[in-house]
Write a structure and sequence with these properties.
This protein is an all-alpha fold. The chain has 2 domains: 78 residues, no CATH class; 81 residues, no CATH class. 65% of the residues lie in helices and 0% in strands. It has 9 helices and no strands.
Length: 159
């Protein structure tokens, strides 16, 4: 049975095809769906709300957001796909819920990295997880303080 689409469905209301929306999300493939920069800009104006609802999650943004003025208006430049999360975090360009989700995931990855014996492997894991350097430093300092406190308590208990 075909799916009924509500008349106010935002995907239908923006008037863009799925291919056009995909291009706003991922950028053009071999050939753009749009015949001119003006047509692309118009599509972003009409489809921005949909693209942002669907793909502005987990510390990532649609390509059109990066390249059609939204990022520039915040003083941001495309950091590359693998650095989007930490870059947006470091520039305070995330909503509170999105920020909290990333922090929880990064904390998990940090703890996992700390279980690795090799410093190069720890760094590689944190780089892969795109954990911001400021958080790495803060969490590592807190970890060292806990370890020193624990060692002091053990030493005091032994005497």
């Amino acid at each position: 049975m075909p799916r009924a689409i509500a008349p106010n469905d935002d995907i239908e209301a923006c008037g863009l095809t799925y291919s056009e929306l995909q291009e706003l999300w991922l950028g053009p493939c071999d050939r753009s769906c749009f015949s001119s920069p003006e047509e692309l800009r118009d599509a972003w104006d009409r489809g921005r709300a949909v693209a942002m609802r669907l793909w502005a999650t987990n510390g990532r943004r649609p390509q059109a957001w990066w390249f059609l003025g939204d990022a520039a208006s915040l003083g941001l430049q495309w950091p590359g796909y693998h650095r989007q999360q930490s870059y947006l975090f470091e520039h305070n360009a995330l909503g509170e819920e999105e920020r909290e989700q990333l922090l929880a995931g990064w904390r998990k990855e940090f703890e996992q990295a700390c279980s690795l014996e090799d410093a190069a492997a720890r760094k590689a894991h944190l780089d892969w997880a795109d954990v911001p350097h400021l958080l790495r430093q803060r969490w590592q300092a807190a970890r060292r303080r806990r370890e020193r406190r624990s060692a002091s308590l053990e030493e005091a208990a032994a005497t």
